[in-house]
Predict the 3D structure of the following.
Amino acid sequence: MPFSTLGLRAELCAAVSEHGYTTPTPIQERAIPVILAGQDVLAAAQTGTGKTAGFALPMLQRLAANHQPPRPRAVRALVLTPTRELAAQVCQSFKDYGSGLKLRSAVIFGGVGIHPQIQAMARGLDVLVATPGRLLDHLQQGTCVLDRVEILVLDEADRMLDMGFIRDIKKVVALMPRQRQTLLFSATFSSEIRALAAQFQQQPVEIDVAPRNSTASQISQIAYAVDKGRKRELLSWLIGSNNWQQVLVFARTKHGANRLAEQLDGDGLKSAAIHGNKSQGARTKALEGFKNGSVRVLVATDIAARGLDIDQLPLVVNHDLPDVPHDYVHRIGRTGRAGREGQAISLVAPDEADLLRGIERLVNQRIPQQILPGYEPSPRALGAAPVAARSPHRGGDRSGSGRAPQRRFSR
Ligand code: AMP
């Protein structure tokens, strides 16, 4: 089915084909006609499903159809996102898809100077993409007004709740007209998300393109059992021996992400860390380096990685398993995007066996597990009988010839 059959105007169809998209993804197929019709939408769709174009295209069409120059400082459509990176990427999508229309869009987020943002909003905007905290600063200073908002989008609403933005969101929504279109996107429909929808939406059309808590089927998943102290060594070896050129690695803490990036750099693998303590400039630079190939390994924490849009990311590595099983689903959603194949690899220390079990319960599938020759977890940690001799490969030749034996972790 081509995009034109969804009712999108020629400028938008042209922008979409310039991006090389020929067929709408399932979320686009279902959301675009409903949003064009002006209805509220409650959608369960993870990053990677094409959800951004799913809301941006019909919003641009509605804003262009009913075009009236925005008043100074006023906003016609507001998109709230949990992170700066996602805000920047969503705004870029509006600019890209709307390049044939005369609409003004801008992005605002914290961690950067406020004055250019004030200037960008001074003449009014058709689309503003914002993180909640910085938007509140502007609203308090009167540099932005929301009393003419026609469309509100809460993107990755589940993550905004996880990050404690609920009070900010309520304050922001209280400043908008009741009569508006509200679109709510979330990875899952939790009870909190349903409560939010009940409060902010009017008879939303529900769209669920991802079976709840399941992981995308085109992603192959594997877990390697390894001692905690040897994870970095195994990771370097996997990257080097497989000649992986673009690897997104997840670490549990900011400190751990920094240390791992430094160690991998020391191993000769150009790496950068991305997390909330890094300045906006450093985060942008790391992401750009990763996209243009000058940075081979990007080590990220969950929050920083949320919403990173990197085309054709071939693989994702969990250096540490996340404490919250939902984060595993978000993490591996970075690969195998929009129908492409991807690989998700987890390095699992014996003391993470319970976390792995929790993840398997959530995604309702077994994640195949392997022990690589030379990286066998120490027998004591595995709960097995101690063996007399050290593995011949340990710390030595790590070429790991032949297939590694399959084995489950002790639970
Ligand atoms: P999103 O879920 O919005 O983060 O989009 C995930 C990725 O899919 C982005 O890299 C988009 O550029 C890409 N994408 C969006 N729509 C399509 C489409 N119809 N066909 C192919 N790729 C798409």
Notes: The longest strand covers residues 219-225. Confidence is low (pLDDT under 50) at residues 381-411. The CA atoms of residues 125 and 331 lie 33 Å apart.
